[in-house]
Design brief:
Blueprint (H helix, E strand, L loop, with lengths): L2 H27 L5 H20 L6 H21 L2 H28 L5 H28 L13 H12 L12 H35 L1
């Protein structure tokens, strides 16, 4: 293994840890801050997630950097101008970005020969990023038709979308938020099935890698 490969592995490992910290903050800790802080914390943290996500990948970094720049610019312009069309373009770019990230993380996990700390971080990040991907789909659905889901508030925010997404992904289903329209119900089914398939596939891969490690000792 040459110096470049060693450096690349270290960058990937550190980036995975940073991404986990930032995503954890975005999903679990921002709701504890006052509501008027969310308007700044959400886009700022989301932008950091974009930048850190690029470095968790072993390849495609230049391509993902280009997509991240486009998403970053449209995200902030949409935040200040409040143009519906630009909001849609921003959400669509974000979806493409997160979808590629999730797929690439799964591929990296599958190609890894051992279940080390980097692979564990990639597995957790992949699940959380999958949740953010579906959160964006929920946001687009609500932009398309505000009656798609029965949120208990008149103007749902990002944290409301995150809540519904992860409750659905884990098939917990409290029932306080329900899909009302046919396409919203289809999206809820996709979210719940994807969450269960991800866990089943990733756990199977990790167990297989760990078993192969033990057999070679």
């Amino acid at each position: 293994m040459n110096l470049f490969e060693i450096l690349n592995r270290r960058i990937t490992r550190i980036s995975n840890l940073l991404l986990l910290i930032v995503v954890f903050f975005f999903i679990f800790l921002i709701p504890f801050f006052p509501n008027n802080w969310h308007k700044i914390l959400n886009p700022m943290t989301f932008s950091i997630i974009f930048l850190v996500s690029i470095f968790v990948l072993n390849s495609w970094r230049r391509t993902m950097f280009t997509i991240a720049v486009i998403a970053f610019i449209t995200e902030w312009i949409a935040y200040w101008i409040h143009m519906p069309v630009l909001n849609f373009v921003s959400s669509l770019t974000n979806i493409i970005f997160f979808q590629i990230i999730v797929i690439k993380l799964i591929i990296q996990i599958a190609k890894s020969k051992i279940a080390d700390s980097r692979v564990i971080f990639e597995s957790i990040n992949g699940y959380l990023m999958l949740g953010l991907l579906f959160t964006l789909w929920i946001a687009i659905a609500m932009q398309y038709d505000s009656g798609s889901f029965s949120f208990q508030v008149e103007m749902p925010v990002v944290q409301d979308y995150i809540y519904f997404t992860f409750v659905t992904m884990t098939t917990l289903g409290y029932g306080d938020v329900t899909p009302l329209l046919p396409f919203a119900r289809s999206l809820a089914i996709l979210i719940s099935i994807s969450g269960q398939i991800y866990i089943a596939v990733i756990i199977a891969m990790l167990v297989g890698k760990y078993a192969s490690q033990e057999s070679t000792k």
